[in-house]
Design brief:
It is a single chain. 7% of the residues lie in helices and 55% in strands. With 862 residues, it is mainly beta. It folds into 3 domains: 79 residues, Phage tail protein beta-alpha-beta fold (3-Layer(bab) Sandwich); 90 residues, Carboxypeptidase-like, regulatory domain (Immunoglobulin-like, Sandwich), CATH 2.60.40.1120; 540 residues, Maltoporin, Chain A (Beta Barrel). It has a 22-stranded antiparallel beta barrel. A 5-stranded mixed beta sheet has the order 14-21-22-17-18. The longest helix has 22 residues. The chain starts with a helix and ends with a strand. 41% of the residues are buried. The N terminus is likely disordered.
Amino acid sequence: MNRLLRCFFLLCCCMIVSGFLWAQDGRLLQTPFTPPFSKGSIQSYFESITQKTGISISYSTAVLNGQQKVKMHGDEHSVSDVLKTIIGKQPLKIVERADKILIVPIDAPDEGSTGSVSQFFPTDGYIKDKNTKEALIGASIYFPALSAGTVTNSFGFYSITLPRGIYKAYVSYVGYRTDTVVFNVNDHRRVDMLLQQDGSRLREVKVSAHRSNENNGDYIQLSMRDIARYQSLLGETDVMRALQMYPGVQSGIDGTTGIQVRGGDPGQNLNLLDGVPLYYVDHLFGVTSVYNSDAIKSVDFYKGAFPARYGGRISSIVDVHTKDGDMQTTGGQFTMGLVKASLMLEGPILKDRCSYMVSARRTWIDGLFAPFYSQVGVNFYDINAKVNYILNDDNHIYLSFYNGRDQIRYSEDDAFFRTRWGNTIASAKWNSILNPKFFLNTIFTYSQFSYELKDQNQVIDSGIISNLSNYVGVSSIKDISLQLQGQWFPNYRHKVEFGGNYARTYFVPTEIQSTDSKVIVPPTKGSGTMLSNELTVYAEDEIKISKKFSTRLGLHWANWYSGQYDYSSLQPRVYFSYDVNSESSLYASFSHMAQFLHLINNNTYGLPTDFWVPSTKIIKPEEAYQGTLGYNTTIAGVHANVEVYYKDMLNVITYTAGKTLFDNSDNWQQKVEQGKGWAYGAELSLEKRIGPVSASLAYTLAWNWRQFDDLNNGDPFPYRYDRRHNIKIAGTYRIKKGMRFTANWMFMSGEAFTLPDQVYPDFDNNLLITQGNASSTSYTYHYSKWNAYRLPAVHRLDIGMDFVKKKKNNLERTWSVGIFNVYARKNVMFVTLTNDLEKGNLQLQGLSYLQFIPYVTYKLKF
């Protein structure tokens, strides 16, 4: 009873306070105010009023020019007097709403008034950076009166159809100041908006247009500011390492950039760069990824609730967008680290019409050591380039290019080894606003990945040189595609996406060429070139059913043809969101995904000896059915998200026991087998900011299983990356202006691995191409229990300090210093197994390399 009385008393107090505040309506205009200057811009007077009185004034740039100069009469002594002088004889009126003053057209209805229910008008445009005029992807526009809004697409474009009326909207983007704009909806309007970067904040809180578009467990949008929060090996800012700090995502090997998502493997992640697939994303043994942070604008990451436009992989989508280039001024960035240097340049070709961006990086440490140790060479380079051209208000063209290569070389008098790999991609995009409600994007893409291994060994006997082995191994994949992506905005409650894609893919899974008759390898062996065709069509409707309930219903259809094999897949995608209140929401999703390409994992570390193969009559497409349920809330400034998931995977692929990449099997299909997998778990993320300090925690509790008919006696066994507990903690402290301290700590349960129980000679399977002499015998292992053993847990602490100094001439210098693995934890990266046949035993040894690695990086922005 006492608790009920207290609640009733508090309710009465709230009603009294609300009534008092409501009674104050109409008094803001009478607030005393004397202009501090007699002549200035309209915007300067508004800012002065806000600064002196705390009263916010909103207006639309479509009805009032804030840069227009006006002159006071000298008899203005209140806010109302100043505003009347500013308006003059313009057909505008002053409207007071609670704690805000609006300036609107004289014939505009009250805010939220819709007039005739049949009168709807589209408003569209672009949201861009105020300084560079670069489009902002995923910027939000939210209309409180309608409890609705929208977000910009991948090109910064938005469109929303609203009922007649006047509406206040919040325009926001991560890392930018939130702007308030008044929309007077009485006919079609093109309203482009510019947002100002907010350099004073660690991270901007995003006002979401739809709660379904917020960062939650299934979808994460990252800006470069978010990515820079996480320290990486050797001080490299890297997209893939940043993603490893989120729940549901784990690294394969500690210190590398690979990711496994919710029970999947690396081949189940769709990695995109400006809409083009990348088939391998590691540089330099996984020290850094092919995504050059200097060239990146933003990243969209999905691990569930997949939009219908995505397909081709079953675990995750990493969609990276590069910078378009500054439309106003020429600038760039130079970075020098311990192992590489990079340079990025951007600027206008035609001011406000055409811009460019080019970025290049390369390792330099190999050149430094070459004069002293020429036998070994390890290096990589990559280049990004982009041109953005505005044909007119309704048509844009984008041209993108990427090329990257890695090389490892070792040479002695009697041996030579070299392996090279890399990606080359290109794209041409044309997006067009067909009318205010229709947006169409046409994309042509090219992607190619190749891997080459060359090995030559010689025997010198009595001064006579004879070749023991001389061969070249090649693996490659190449695709060409044409995509159409359409968006239709019928009204503010619906956003419809539709489109299709045709892709033609060429595979060379494995091919080995040899010129040595002493090696039991044919002169040329392998699978040869294989060809596939894929056609996809999709449609999706994002619906705002009510103020609290929204949904996204999608369907993705794919048809695959390779040789005599034809397969069709119909994949539903469903997402629901319910706003419990202004701070909390419940959401659920179901996704069916399929992939027709398979990455055969050779269980090597940091080298791309895995190879891509197509689905065939024998090898079926991989499929996944995933369901999620989550809760998103903010309590006392702490943003929390908790989510549970379950995923069934069909036709997952692995090597057949005893088979390897290079053996005597001419057909790669004889080396692999398929089974099923399932993964389930719970994820938790917490984020909090207090003044100059921000912190985040990500925890994952997960189970991950596999089952194959011919492995482990057909019984289920833990997958290699079945890590029960994953904990990631990140913190940032802005000590003072220009000085920031960061710390990241991570913990992962040890991965599962398999030990053999028998070893025996293998006379007819291995190639013997790297044995010491022609009579060497190769051995193979027998396994009876799969993944029954565990490596020790992995954990480490990384710290860093950034020192930033800005100059008046727009130069910005940053020194970054830090330590990777502060307490020198010996995390086992992988194990080696050797046999001593004379003693009749096997020796297991864990290898750990990344212990206490300091770094220093210099960055210059100009």
